[in-house]
Amino acid sequence: MDPCCGPTDISEERKHRPAGRQNPRAPSPFPRTRTIGMIPRPPMPFAPPPDRTAVLAELRAFVANWFRDGRDDGLLPDTPLVTSGIVDSAGVIEVVEFVERRFGARFEDADLSLANCNTLSALADLVVQRR
What pLDDT shows up at residue 28? Predict the structure, then answer.
């Protein structure tokens, strides 16, 4: 072994390789996980599609907790969220991310319109359609 440059031949390099997986491209024996931020998360288990009433109740609770300090009074299914200032444009993204995580619904850019995101009722309908 050359002290300044490391091993001089391949066989000598293999002697000093740490234990563990020998081929870094070999499939891992652990189940595949999705990474959210820096914390790996296991895949979400499959759940049956929620009914509209359950979606509406969870959306109402989320909006009340995130945008109204937990107050759900006056937050009806047809209360305007965006046009009344309860939820701003960045808040719409928060709601969409919640829906995608919670219900597994996937939205296209065209789905994120004022007509679909302005009321809890319209959001619940969209979630039921996309699930």
Answer: 55
